Structures are given as C-alpha cells and as structure tokens.
Amino acid sequence: MITIPKGTKDVLPGESYRWQYLEEKARAVSKRYCLKEVRTPTFEHTELFNRGVGDTTDIVNKEMYTFLDKGDRSITLKPEGTAGVARMFIENGLTGGVLPAKLYYITPAFRYERPQAGRLREFHQFGVEFFGSPSPDADAEVIMLANDFLKDVGIDEVELNINSIGCKHCRPKYNEALRDYYRPHLGEVCPTCRERFEKNPLRLLDCKEETCHEIAKNAPVITDYLCEECERHFKGVRELLDACGISYKINPNIVRGLDYYSKTVFEFVSTAIGSQGTVCGGGRYDTLIENLGGSPTPAVGFAAGLERLILLMQNTGVSFGEEPVPEVYLAGMDELSRKKAFAVAKTLRENGIVADTDHMNRSIKAQFKYAGKIGAKFVATIGSSELEGGFMNVKNMATSESVKVPFDEAVTYFKKGEK
Ligand code: ATP
Ligand code: MG
User: Fold this and answer.
1) Mean pLDDT of 385-398
2) Does residue 103 come out as left (phi exceeding 0), alpha (psi in the -120 to 50 range) or beta?
3) Is there a domain that residue 207 lies in?
4) What are phi and psi of 59, to 5 degrees?
C-alpha cells in the first residue's frame, strides 16, 4: 500500500468542518479589520526565500524543499507566507498604490523538519501583512487582530509575549554586548549557535537546545539597548495595547525565527500543547520590501499555525462548532417514489436546504439506517400512496413524531425547521 509521506496529514471527511471553522473565523476577523485576501503560488524561485527569509535562519539553512525543475531553475516550496506576498506586492507595483495595504492569506507551507506533535513538513498558516505604515498603530492593530482571531475561535489559554529587537542603528551595539556575553560560553553552546555567533548572535537567544536555552536566560536584554526611536515605538505599541485592555508580557528572549524582523516582535504561546507552544508569531519587518528590490516600505504582520491551533483546541476542549448534518433525507419505497424523492431533493437544495437521498438502491429500512448514520434531522418517506395523495411522511428523527407534508409545502416546512 502507498502511504502518506512523513510529516504530512490528511484531513478526513469527519475533520474538515474543524478546518472550515478556523478558516471562517480567520476570514471573518480579516473582513472586520478591512483586510483583503491574497493568494500566491505554492512554489517560488529559491532566491526569494534566501533573500526574504534570510540565510542565517533554520528555514533557509536546513528546512527548505528545494529542487531543480525540468528547465534547471532552482525552485522552492514556500516555507512561509510573507516572502511570496512581499514579492507579489513589489512585482505588481503595489508599493506605489494605496497605502497602507492590509492583506491576509491562508496557505500551506513546507519545511523539512523532524515531525512531532505540532511540527509537520506540510502545515498551514493564516497570515496577515500590513504594508506602508511605520507607526506603532499598525503593530498594535496587527496584534489586536491576532488577539481577536484567537478569542473568536474560543482560545483563551494563550499568553501574548512582546519584545522589541531594535533596528539597524541600535542592534549592532546589542549584538556586541551579546557576543561579549556568549564568548566565554562558546564551548557549551550547540554547533549551530557557534556558527551563528558571528553572523547573527540574536539567533542564539532563540535556540531550542536545552543548554543554549539555559545560557540565554542570563544574556543581556535588548530592551536595555534600544535607540530613542525604537524605545518610543515600543512604548507606542504598549500604550495602544494597554488602551485596548490587551494583556501581554514583555519577554526579551522573543526574537523570532526569521532574519527580516526589526522593532516589534510578538508571539502567542500556549503551555497546553507541549514544547511546540507558539501558535502565532509575528512582528515588524521594515527592510524586507527594500531587500527584495522594492521601494522602502515599512511592514508588520503575523502568521498563525492552523495545525497547532487545532491541537490546542482539542487539548483544551474548545468547540469547533457543530458538524453540519443534513436537514432531511428523502427515502423512496419503489422505483417511482425514488424518482420523486430525487426530484424533491433537488427542489429543496435549490432552496438552500441540506437534503440527501439514496444512491445505493437500498431497502427502506436500510435507507433509514443510513439517514441515522449521517445524522439527518428528518426522514421524508415516499411510497405509492404518498405519491397518489401528493404528500410525504416526514419523521422527526429526534422525537420520532411523524407528520404529512404536501410536496408543494416541502420547502416552507424544512425552511422553518432549519431555524
Ligand atoms: P518554531 O519556533 O515553533 O519552529 P517558527 O518560528 O519556525 O516556529 P514561524 O516561521 O514564525 O515559526 O511560523 C509561524 C507559525 O507557524 C508558528 O508560530 C507555528 O504556529 C506554525 N509553524 C511553524 N513551523 C511549523 C511546522 N513545522 N509545523 C506546524 N506548524 C508550524
Ligand atoms: Mg521553526
């Protein structure tokens, strides 16, 4: 038997309503905040991610699905959503359009990682990007949107962590302080951290290795090194969150996994799903668009991992809404009645009523059994006497009560039931 590739998952028919629930919440909150959806290709030129995600990141160094296509081009399956959206934004001249541009996407992403709970090789993200505003208002609105999304979904077991990682003016001084701190520990940190020590010491704070994590705890904190502008910006974000009653923790060890961040970074973290606790992460990336060849355009955004959200919801008993069930199952007893059942089903469906009927030439008993299995609220039976009398026998499956409903009143009857 051919089996599913490691690190990927099927969404089974009994599970898809959960995905739809999350996706509907994502779309609804995006709409309320006046965002527009964008869709970009599943694969891009590898160069986009090398430059857009950054060549000191785990994603680019270890995790990308990269291959040569038949035309010898280096192609990569998108490991995240931002780089593609930024490319689209530049390529279509949107940097000179109406700003700020507030965009969202729901996309699969691919990373060659060690699969475990909450860590897959193909996973899905709901992401948001605001282009054009350098103001703390944009950061605060992005965070508020993420917060509202999680609240709408029904998740409250998450903690919002925020930090500022400075800019090109203040980060160099902090990087020096970090190097001074880490130099005596270089023998203890993991080989990857040793490599990143020179190029991007900030990354060392983010390492998941136990020893590195311990050492990071006593490292100097970036918030002590922020320049006036970054300090002011960070204060602005916090004041807006305070004004909206959003609680958060300032966590100087949040630096985020991608290279392009500056100023605000944030994560929503849960303790209910083990070590893969970050369900949503984001921040400001004012240099990304410029690095990719666009005119300088400040930006801020986030991405939430849908698999991790589903895991968190399952582990904490959050409801996914009701699994939709058919309103009515039309059961025909003989050949003529079956045709009538088929036709009534069509009329009901045309009127927005969820209706089903038999395809398997089953006995009436077996049809009832099937209707029970799919959870139909009503079963409408049609036989020769019903055909003659112009009605059907409608049984309420919950109460077992039966009533006669004329064919020409079927739509009204079930419309009422749906309320
Ligand atoms: P982590 O530190 O857990 O590896 P990350 O910093 O690599 O996360 P981002 O690149 O910020 O993650 O991606 C945004 C979100 O996408 C994460 O917060 C997480 O919810 C989700 N995510 C990232 N990688 C995976 C994966 N391999 N499988 C499932 N979800 C993922
Ligand atoms: Mg990662």
Assistant:
1) 97
2) beta
3) no
4) -55, -55
Check: CB of residue 292 under 8 Å from CB of residue 278.
no
Regarding whether 359 and 241 lie in a shared domain, the answer is: no
Given 260, 284, 315, the domain boundary residue is 315
SS3 content of the chain, % helix, strand, coil (to 5): 40, 20, 35
Q: What are phi and psi of 398, to 5 degrees?
A: -80, -40
In a domain, 182, yes or no: no
Residue at 365 is within a domain: yes
Residues 238, 370, single domain; the answer is no
Closest C-alpha among 212, 234, 236, 214 to residue 223: 234
* Structural domain span for residue 351: 328-418
Question: For residue range 299-319, what is the model confidence (pLDDT) as tens digits?
Answer: 999 999 999 999 999 999 999
Q: Yes or no: say if 154 and 318 are a contact pair by the CB < 8 Å rule.
A: yes
- At residue 419, the pLDDT reads 47
8 A C-beta contact, residue 312 and residue 268: no
What CA–CA distance (Å, rounded) separates 347 from 373?
23
Same domain membership, residue 303 and residue 367: no
Residues 192-212 have pLDDT tens digits of 899 889 888 988 998 888 999
Domain boundary among 289, 315, 341: 315
What residues flank ligand 1, with Cβ below 6 Å? 80, 111, 113, 118-120, 123, 125, 257, 276, 278-281, 303, 305, 307-308
Same domain membership, residue 106 and residue 249: yes
pLDDT at 81 over 60: yes
Phi and psi, residue 46, nearest 5°: -55, -40
Residues 151 and 283 in one domain: yes
- Is the same domain home to 346 and 260? no
Look at residue 255 in the predicted model and tell me its pLDDT.
86
Of 53, 271, 307, 308, the one to substitute when testing ligand 1's pocket (max ligand atoms within 8 A of C-beta) is 308
Structure tokens at 385: 């006497």
